[in-house]
Amino acid sequence: MIVKQKQVYCRPALCIGCRICANACAVAHGGTTNPRLGRINVRVNAFQRYEFQELCRHCEDAPCVDACMVGCLEKNEETGVVTNDDRCVGCWMCVMVCPFGGMKRDVLNNMAIKCDQCKDIEGGPVCVQACPTGALVFEEREDSVEEPFFTGPTVA
Amino acid sequence: MNYVIVGNSAAAVGAIESIRKVDKEGSITVVSNEKEHVYSRPLIAHYLAGEVSDDRMSYRPGDFYEKNGVVKRFGVTATGIDTVAKQLNTDAGVIPYDKLLLTTGSKATVPPIKGKDFEGVSAFQTFEQAKAVKSRIAPGVKAVVIGAGLIGMRAAYGLEEAGVKVTIVELLPRILSRVLDEKGSAMVQSILEKGGMKVYTSRKVEEITGENGQVTGVILDGGEKLETTIVIIATGVAPDLEIVKGTMIRTNQGILVNSYFQTNDSDVFAAGDVAETYDIPRDKPMVNANWPNAHEQGRFAGLNMAGNMTAYPGSLGMNSVSFFGIPVVSLGLCDPETEKAEGIEIKEKLVPENDIYQKLVFKQNKLKGAIFIGDLAYCGAIKDLIKEQMLVGIIKDTILEEKYQLYSFLRKKRIEKVEGKNIQWPEHYTSQQKFVKHFDEKSWTEREKDKRAWK
Fold first, then answer.
1. In a domain, A74, yes or no
2. What is the CA angle B365-B259-A4, rounded to 5?
3. Does residue A94 surpass a pLDDT of 90?
4. From the CA of A121, how many Å to the nearest CA of chain B?
5. Residue B155 pLDDT > 90, yes or no?
6. CB spacing of B320 vs A92 below 8 angstroms
7. CATH number for the domain that contains residue A113
């Protein structure tokens, strides 16, 4: 499902779970300093260790684009970036179908929010720019299917 | 290649887009009995509420058809198919086809209630009907919605948002009986009642009264009279099979299709709410009428029509709706009691004071369905687990816990992690026989056989 194109990846060995990426994202896109409203969210497990980033993967045949009943989610054919727009009415169909948790609910504005890879911001994604340890990278990977899912042995 | 598509909604759009990905030259004709540009049907409730204006109703941009080179035949009703001569009969002449796609969707079934022909009484399915209802909204107006299914509830909530006092009348003992279980229904009903809507369950509408052709009220069983100027009848929908009547195309509940969306005539395809496809959690063919499935099925059907044969893995009943800011999601087989499913195990979390209800339905270490009310938590990942029918045996108890990191398991890795590497995995089966003594080979083969029979 993950498409081979430039994506934001987390290098787990470097991530300290500080959530500065989420905060920077919320500031850049929503104008608030609430990491919960960041389009990226690196989750940490009970051992305070990086586990998984909730972030849009800009899927090929994206299920959210299928599910969007308004037609406001669309995948750009040239750049491959899936974007939402202000027509969103907050039906949460996309939240229901996204297996990566890349769609989040902004309850105040009644809109679904998602990563647009900072397409309008100079210098690329703000989360990558803000990451203090350099754990986040914006690159195209060969093994983009397996890499971001699993980060070594953890306790189930 | 000459593609003809009957119907103009989610599945048709999906088909047009995917045909154009493969075949840039073939001609595409869309035949639809509605005159509007493609619009979003579920959005008409939001239109009623005033959240969405007229110009924002369209599902795709205004130049969608021109950009994709589609010949529009709007306002034309398809009446039948001549599968031998490969012609679509319409009320405006015949249209020849090479590949035909039927996406006629479903139509409302209106019960024979006395007085249903008064002005102000309508079903709630098309933009036209929504416009008619909206034109009757004025301050102080009351409305009655007959039927508390998803369409009825969406309409009722839309009216409520628009400032209309709404009463819902349902024949069955609980609301949303097709998508929620008993506890979920009770919770949603209490949410609605807290919000100021009136819900009558186990009540029947005897008669709709009117004067001078305009509706004035509704009489319930027992003689109770409700005054109203708007009546919405939303007692159910059924696949619109009008067009295939009298042809060789086989139908059951919907049009029967294989996993390539072909009907028993290999040049006639069907997708969307009208098609009966393989339902993953229930493991049998079923009509799953919802927007995400329709678009997805249209996409697959389009690929198959254009010659890029791609098998469809199956559909999943799912729906999302929210009332007074509280989201409600239902996935797959979520009410095993009513459906009389066997071998079911249920895990649930209920916090009535916060309006939170989460429920997971398991069968043989696989997730079959889920309900999320109030807190959507991991519902996307859960939907993925249901759709892939992954083995989730040992996380049954912890899956609903707040801190559980389900997102760290995805696809194959998630199975490996959840069930261990040495377990019940067909491609590892021969090399790991000593670990899989409890693996029931017969059940696997039978399951595979059934799947093949369907395909």
1. yes
2. 75
3. yes
4. 25
5. yes
6. yes
7. 3.30.70.20
Q: How far apart are CA A110 and CA B307, in angstroms?
A: 41
Asked if A87 reaches chain B (Cβ–Cβ under 8 Å), the answer is yes
Q: Which two structure tokens, joined as six digits, stand for A120?
A: 């309008």
Task: Give me the amino acid identity at B330.
Answer: S
Say which residue, B429 or A18, is predicted with more confidence: A18
Contacts of B325 in chain A (CB under 8 A): 107
- Percent share of chain B, pLDDT over 70: 87
Query: How many Cβ pairs closer than 8 A exist between chain A and B?
Result: 112
Q: Is residue A59 part of a domain?
A: yes
pLDDT digits (tens, 9 = 90+) for A104-117: 898 888 899 999 99
Closest-CA residue of A relative to B296 is A66
**Cβ–Cβ below 8 Å for A103 and B380:** yes
Instruction: Sort strands B106-108 and B268-270 into parallel, antiparallel or unpaired.
Output: unpaired
User: B166: closest CA among B131, B205, B200?
Assistant: B200
CATH number for B325-420 (one of 3.40.50.620, 3.40.50.150, 2.40.50.140, 3.30.390.30): it is 3.30.390.30
Q: List, for residues B254-309, the tens digit of each pLDDT value.
A: 999 999 999 999 899 999 999 999 999 988 899 998 999 999 999 999 999 998 88
Task: Indicate whether B420 pLDDT > 60.
Answer: no
Which pTM does this prediction carry? 0.86
Beta-carbon separation of A154 and B376 below 8 A:
no
* Residue B320 · residue A96 · CB < 8 Å: yes
Q: Which chain B residues touch A88 with a CB distance below 8 Å? A: none
Its domain, for residue A64, covers 7-149
Q: Which fold has domain B2-106+238-305?
A: FAD/NAD(P)-binding domain (3.50.50)
Q: Identify all chain B residues contacting A89, using CB atoms and an 8 Å cutoff.
A: 43, 46, 51-52
Count of CA atoms in the C-beta half-sphere (13 A) of A94: 29
- Contact assignment for A70 to B40 by CB distance below 8 Å: yes
CATH class of the B121-235 domain in this structure: alpha beta
Q: How many CB atoms lie within 10 A of CB B88?
A: 25
CB contact under 8 A, B291 and A45: no
What is the rounded CA–CA span in Å between residue B4 and residue B268? Answer: 10
For A20-63, write each residue's pLDDT tens digit.
Answer: 999 999 999 988 888 888 898 876 654 444 456 678 888 888 99
* Residue B418: predicted pLDDT: 47
CB contact under 8 A, A63 and B14: no
Question: Is A93's CB within 8 Å of B394's CB?
Answer: no
Phi, psi of B345 (to 5 degrees): -125, 140
